[in-house]
């Protein structure tokens, strides 16, 4: 055992050198210090903690916003006019920045654990400042161009809250080792009291946090409503080009209960499916009609529209990263798609007895159908032969006239109104963004016999939360993914959650008390002081003969304690062992 002691000490010193070297470029032993961290460095430690917390929120936001990445890219396209996946650089830089700051946080905690003075190197300070600045700019930018997406955080916490609470409880419980060590080492009563109060306040807050955690998935299993119907938003746009016949056929293969589309009206009065104002993104209009590629899609007649290719863009842009997994036959089918008319969609839905919901865009001023667009659409519905009860009618214009012409249509509002107002207007269903209806709203509408369809729901966690909330149907761009969710991801009764909460708190409290007792016992007899080391720490920034003498005394003191050979320690600390002179660098 004694024989291997110098090697073990050397390994510990090597680890300590790496720790202080990477964090503060203090590779030599005499550069380290056990003194209290200076106020300036303490300020930088607080900045590091704040940056880590901000990046953690930023990282969590983008992790949960994955449900709406397609929407975000569409916003960017409308602003720039060019299609690209803007989430890729954001996710890459976020992952890199979070990893870097988290690594610095771990190094800082290790410094505290071994009692080393915190001294962040200036290069790291620049890195922390850059991470803080870019993250702040990111928050501001998202708030300006995509502010409604912040609602995903409180909604996602309904799915992740109980698990994040347990994770935070484990982390804070583990921090008891560092806190207990700091309290045991210091002799300043005020410092001990402040540290203990802060730590215990955080710990107590976590113990009581479940009182503020609400989730529709914490419910009795018997109260779970039937699985919500899934409506294919633009068909199945992850598997085929949006708003094409192939996309709707793929959605039907995923067992959807309905189909949703975006409808515009051509110059000659034919309703057709198109999400964008122009044809640039989803057709080859730039190749066929290069002079008209920026024109409104409604300015084209149906013959010209039907001649355009509506599939090649999907193979080129691969908006959902699914093209590489397609078979060659599927690629050929995708590449030969054309613009789809509303009548084609209605006939397909009628054939399979499925619901159809569509948003209808009014043509611009000067368009031949500017005043007749409602009647033109109703005529197409009549000619298609689809039963009226299968069509969810969303336009608010001339609802009275629409009810007279087609009384069987499901009158649907895209505006959140009180149930009493909806009944007065003859509206029986709502089509809202998922962030517009809380679990309470959904239950209130359900009690008033108003069905609620929420869009766009692509992630299993969001589908599970809305399922537990009691929603009747959701509109999704990913019916192929939701098809694999036959039951909510997690569901537990209030009694089960209460048991987990109490058990976790008791275990955490026991571990924390044990850590404090052990640390107090372990460090109670380890307070020893080396006068030369104290003087050296105070004079670490000076270069003089006295400082060198103190270094020599410290080295010989460590040699006598079995740390290593005199030659090794001299060379490590920058001395020529044979000439007893400082080595110039």
How would you describe what is shown here?
It is found in: Membrane. One of its GO terms (cellular component) is plasma membrane. The chain crosses the membrane at residues 42-63, 90-114, 126-147, 159-179, 191-209, 499-518. InterPro entries: GP_PDE_dom, PLC-like_Pdiesterase_TIM-brl. By secondary structure, the chain is an alpha/beta fold. It has helices at residues 5-24, 39-64, 69-80, 87-114, 122-145, 152-174, 176-185, 189-208, 245-253, 285-288, 302-306, 312-317, 328-335, 342-351, 373-384, 399-405, 419-424, 439-447, 460-469, 479-482, 494-524, 531-538, 545-560, 566-572, and strands at 229-233, 258-265, 271-273, 355-360, 391-393, 410-413, 429-433, 451-455, 473-476, 575-576, 581-582. The strands form two sheets. Strands 1-2-4-5-6-7-8-9 form an eight-stranded parallel β-barrel. The longest helix is centred in the C-terminal third of the chain and has 31 residues, at 494-524.
């Amino acid at each position: 055992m004694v024989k291997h002691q110098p090697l073990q000490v050397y390994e510990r010193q090597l680890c300590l050198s790496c720790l202080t070297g990477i964090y503060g470029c203090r590779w030599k032993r005499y550069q380290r210090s056990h003194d209290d961290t200076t106020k300036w460095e303490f300020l930088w430690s607080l900045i590091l903690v704040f940056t880590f917390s901000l990046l953690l929120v930023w990282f969590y936001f983008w992790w949960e916003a994955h449900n709406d990445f397609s929407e975000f890219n569409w916003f960017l396209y409308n602003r720039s006019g060019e299609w690209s996946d803007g989430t890729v650089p954001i996710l890459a830089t976020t992952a890199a920045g979070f990893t870097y700051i988290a690594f610095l946080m771990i190094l800082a905690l290790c410094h505290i654990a071994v009692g080393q003075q915190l001294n962040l190197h200036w290069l790291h300070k620049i890195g922390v400042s850059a991470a803080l600045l870019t993250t702040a700019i990111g928050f501001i930018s998202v708030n300006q161009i995509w502010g409604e997406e912040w609602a995903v955080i409180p909604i996602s916490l309904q799915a992740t809250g109980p698990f994040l609470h347990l994770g935070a409880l484990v982390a804070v419980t583990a921090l008891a080792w560092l806190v207990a060590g700091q309290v045991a080492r210091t002799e300043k009563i005020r410092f001990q009291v402040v540290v203990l109060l802060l730590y215990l306040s955080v710990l107590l807050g976590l113990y009581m946090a479940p009182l503020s955690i609400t989730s529709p998935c914490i419910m009795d299993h018997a109260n779970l409503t039937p699985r919500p119907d899934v409506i294919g938003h633009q068909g199945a746009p992850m598997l085929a080009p949006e708003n094409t016949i192939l996309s709707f056929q793929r959605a039907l293969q995923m067992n959807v209960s309905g189909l949703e589309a975006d409808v515009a009206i051509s110059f000659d009065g034919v309703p057709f499916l198109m999400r964008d104002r122009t044809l640039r993104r989803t057709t080859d209009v730039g190749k066929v009609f290069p002079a008209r590629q920026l024109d409104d899609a409604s300015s084209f007649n149906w013959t010209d529209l039907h001649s355009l290719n509506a599939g090649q863009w999907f193979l080129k842009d691969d908006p959902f990263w699914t093209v590489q997994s397609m078979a060659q036959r599927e690629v050929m089918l995708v590449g030969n798609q054309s613009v789809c008319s509303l009548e084609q969609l209605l006939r397909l839905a009628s054939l399979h007895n499925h619901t159809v919901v569509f948003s209808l865009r009014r043509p611009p001023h000067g368009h031949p159908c500017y005043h007749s667009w409602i009647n033109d659409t109703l005529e197409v519905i009549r000619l298609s032969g689809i039963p009226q009860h299968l069509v969810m009618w969303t336009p608010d214009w001339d609802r009275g006239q629409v009810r007279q012409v087609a009384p069987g249509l499901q009158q649907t509002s895209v505006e959140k109104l009180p149930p009493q107002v909806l009944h007065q207007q003859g509206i029986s269903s709502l089509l809202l963004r998922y962030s517009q209806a809380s679990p309470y709203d959904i239950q209130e509408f359900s009690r008033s016999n108003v069905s609620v369809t929420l869009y766009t729901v692509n992630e299993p966690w969001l589908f599970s939360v809305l399922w537990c909330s009691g929603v009747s149907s959701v509109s999704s761009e990913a019916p192929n993914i939701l098809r694999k969710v036959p039951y909510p991801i997690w569901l537990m009764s209030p009694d089960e959650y209460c048991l987990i909460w109490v058990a976790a708190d008791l275990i955490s409290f026991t571990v924390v008390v044990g850590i404090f007792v052990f640390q107090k016992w372990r460090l109670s007899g380890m307070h020893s002081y080396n006068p030369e080391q104290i003087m050296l720490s105070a004079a670490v920034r000076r270069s003089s003969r006295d400082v060198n003498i103190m270094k020599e005394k410290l080295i010989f003191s460590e040699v006598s304690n079995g740390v290593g050979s005199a030659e090794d320690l001299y060379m490590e600390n920058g001395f020529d062992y044979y000439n007893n002179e400082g080595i110039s660098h």
